[in-house]
Each structure stands twice: as C-alpha cells, then as structure tokens.
Design brief:
The complex is a heterodimer of chains A (276) and B (165). Chain A has 276 residues and is mainly α. Helix content of chain A is 40%, strand content 7%. Chain A is globular, with a radius of gyration of 18 Å. By secondary structure, chain B is mainly β. Chain B has a single domain, classed as Sandwich (Jelly Rolls). Helix content of chain B is 4%, strand content 32%. The radius of gyration of chain B is 17 Å and the shape is globular. The chains are: A mainly alpha (276), B mainly beta (165). The A-B interface holds A 43, 46, 48-55, 131-134, 136-143, 154, 156, 178, 181, 185-189, 191-193, 195-199, 202-205, 207, 245 and B 39, 41, 43, 45-49, 75-86, 103-104, 106, 108, 110-113, 115, 138-141, 150-151.
C-alpha cells in the first residue's frame, strides 16, 4: 500500500526517492514517460474531464473527480516503475495550512535546484509537437509561449489561498453534484493562483506539464476521499459503469483507493521491528 | 426565470444581465434553495475568476466582496487560452450523429451555479427584479480587465435564478 503524504512532512529520503523517480520518468520519451502522461490531459490528447455539470440530462453527471483519480493513479504507477520502488507515491499539498498561507508553494516544489541538480518538482522542459499552433494562444492571452520551453509559475499572494473554513464548507456538502462542482471550482482557482497570467498551470493545454500539477491533483483527490469517508456520501449510480477514457478503468473501479493500493496520511514514521 | 444576454456593454468586460423578474412572495411554496444559474459559459479563452453580484450593476474589480455590495460568490474558469490545434480542432460539433459514442468535445460550454438561498430570501423581501453582474478578474498581476484588449472574457448563453421547493 502506497501512502500519499503531505509534502511538507515528507522525510528527506522519500523526497529524494520521489525526485529521482520523477527525473527518471522525465527522461523516458515513450508511452511510459512524463511527456506522454502529461499529454493525456492537454496537448496533444485533450482527454481531461472538466465542467460537465449540465452536459447531459442527469443533474449529477460529473466525471471530473473519478477521471482525475484514474489519471493520478496511472501516473503514480509509471512513477513507481521509473523509480523501481512501489512505495513511491505522489504527495499532496495542504494550501490551507499556516505555512502555506505564509510562504505559498512549499520549498520542495519551488526550489529550482536540490543538491546541485535541477529540481524535477520545480519545472519540466517541454517540446511541443509540430502540429501545435500557438498563434491563437499568444494572441488571446498576451503571453509569449514558444514551441520549446521550461514550465513556469506566477503564483499569487499566499494570503489568497483557500482557508480551512472554505474546505470544511465544501466537505460538508452532501450532494455529489454540489461537492464535485465546489471542489472543481476550488481546483480551478488553485490552477489560476499558481499559474497567474502566463504560467502553465493556468491553461488546460499546458498545465499537466508542470510537476506541481500532480501534487495539486493529489490534494484534490484527497479531498474527494475525505468527502467519501463521511457517512452517507456516495457517488450516483449513473456514474458507476462510465469508462474513464483512455484508462482501462470504470468509475466503479476507482471508487475505493484501497483497491487501487493507496491511502492518505499526514505523515508516516516506521521503525525497524527487529524481525530478521 | 432567465434572461438572454442582450444587455452587455460592448465597451466593457463586465457582464450585466437584463433584469430577471422574480417575486418570491408570490411563489406557491417556500423554497429551500436558490441558485444563480449560468448556462453555456465559454472556457476556450482566458482563465479568470467571475465575481457575481446581485443588483449592483456598477460593480467592478475594485468592489469589495461583501453582502452590502451584493456579492454572492465567484466561479473560476480554467481556460484553454485559445485554440492550439489544427484548423477545426476547436470547432464545436452541433450534435452527435446517431451511433456516435465518443465523449463530448472538450470545449463544450460549461454550466455554473452559485448558491444564493439566504441572499435571495433577504433581498427578495423588497424587490422583484434582479440584475446579475459578472466581473471577470484575470489571474496574475491585476490589470484592469475592463480595459483588457482582445476578445470578450465572459461569454455565456443564458443566466437566471432558479428556486427549489
């Protein structure tokens, strides 16, 4: 069972393992690699699910949360493969913590280097496919995006991050549609908070290339699980057999994280029990 | 009750609806919930926060976000920033053909709602017309989105108020 922990509580050795696995994954250029995984969300595949409220007659039809759970699970499996370590997991970032509301993005993600090397949690070097035409993007946004670039962030003031009260208010919603819409909105807000005007996190086509994307979605998935754990909260049956394209999983198969081999914790400290 | 998008000031990025007529005292049953519904919200362009105000058509990005100013909540758009594909990549298909089981196009306009139950119960004691204002605030350093050049930020199909009993 992989334990997804808060990034601020991650022991140094686990942070190093995570960085090494991520660096390795970033060096793989086939369908096990970072670029391929990120490309499922935006450029070039655009398979992500957002804002589906009202898209069909059923008022509770939303795939945003289960689709991103499957996506993160998929990513984590390839990350473990790259690191040759099945206990590596994606950490989460509590934006509501006192530390976050003072320093913003945790240093593990915002330091550009570690031990004299590039920090793979800080940025990723993207080479866009030749089929991409950036003319419209650059005209509409006023940003100057090139076909090859290092992802970057333009974070807003830490005091504007969501509060504990806002998160608790979300978790207290009983209706799945209300909760999904609420958590998706706060997710959109964090994308914008990190990306600012021209940072990659602000725009669907580029966001998943920024390594913080995975930590952000781990936070969202944790909120989803915390909501599920409250008595009486369930996903509507209409969703259960929906396929989470392009993953070979249905919603039913991702409802329970335990069946996907992970759980959440603030931190975990294990010591040797002495059994040889 | 809903209002068509025909009262936009083309010189401004702020959306102001035509009045929505709703007399809550005449509703047959007391409602337990009321929402502002926004249908067909475009998300192909900028990422932005849409600050929603009731009966404050003069609201702008400097307006304080409190009850006195009619602020009822915000929605956030995670935009595409324009089209990055080949010709036709971002064209919305009007309708799926029979037997077409593919997922819907990712730029399909979205539906947003803001829960305004208590606000409407209070405001509705005195008025029967509601004007909904959406002030877009772009991410990043604050530039006045009123003066933002380029295409319109807030694009929607219909907006209105729904009550549930």
């Amino acid at each position: 069972m992989a334990i997804r922990k808060s990034i601020r509580n991650l022991p140094e050795i686990e942070l190093t393992d995570l960085r090494n696995a991520l660096s390795q994954m970033m060096s793989i250029t086939d369908n096990r690699g970072y670029e391929y995984m990120a490309g499922i969300h935006g450029i070039p595949q655009f398979r992500c699910k957002h804002g589906e409220a009202g898209s069909i007659a059923d008022p509770n039809f939303r795939l945003f949360l289960p689709w991103h759970r499957a996506f993160l699970y998929w990513f984590e499996k390839y990350l473990q493969d790259a690191g040759h370590n099945t206990s590596i997991s994606v950490p989460w970032w509590d934006w509501t913590s006192e530390a976050s509301r003072i320093e913003g993005i945790p240093k593990a993600l915002s330091d550009s280097t570690f031990n004299g090397n590039n920090n793979p949690l800080f940025s990723y070097h993207v080479k866009l496919p030749k089929s991409v035409d950036l003319t419209s993007f650059n005209e509409q946004t006023g940003c100057r995006k090139a076909m090859e670039f290092d992802t970057h962030r333009e974070p807003d003031s830490p005091g504007l991050l969501p509060t504990k009260e806002e998160v608790e208010s979300l978790l207290s919603l009983r209706d799945y549609g209300d909760f999904s819409d609420g958590v998706e909105d706060i997710h959109n807000r964090i994308h914008g908070w990190i990306g600012g005007r021209c940072g990659d996190m602000s725009y669907v086509p580029f966001s998943a290339f920024d390594p913080i994307f995975w930590i952000h979605h781990c936070t969202i998935d944790r909120l989803f699980w915390l909501w599920q754990l409250r008595p009486g909260n369930n996903l509507p049956l209409i969703l259960y057999d929906e396929v989470l394209d392009p993953f070979s999983l249905t919603v039913r198969q991702v409802i329970n994280p335990y069946e996907l081999g992970y759980d959440y914790a603030s931190q975990q400290v294990l010591v040797n029990g002495g059994i040889p | 009750m809903s209002s068509d998008k025909n009262n936009e000031d083309i010189n401004s990025q702020i959306f102001v609806s035509t009045p929505v007529h709703l007399d809550i005292k005449k509703l047959e049953n007391e409602f337990y919930r009321a929402d502002i519904e926004i249908h067909g919200v475009d998300h192909s362009g900028h990422s932005y926060e849409g600050r929603v105000f009731l009966n404050n058509p003069k609201a702008d990005s400097d307006t304080k976000l409190n009850f006195e100013n009619g602020y009822v909540g915000s929605y956030h758009i995670f935009g595409h920033g324009g089209c990055v594909g080949n010709l036709g990549h971002c064209d919305l298909l009007p309708q799926r053909r029979p037997y077409d089981k593919r997922p819907s196009q990712d730029l399909k306009p979205q539906y947003k709602r803001i829960i305004i139950t208590e606000f409407l119960k209070m405001l509705g004691q005195n008025v029967t017309e509601f004007i909904i204002t959406i002030v877009p605030v772009l991410n990043g350093p604050q530039v006045d989105s009123d003066k933002e050049s380029g295409s319109r930020i807030v694009k929607l199909d219909k907006i209105g108020i729904i009550t549930y009993d």
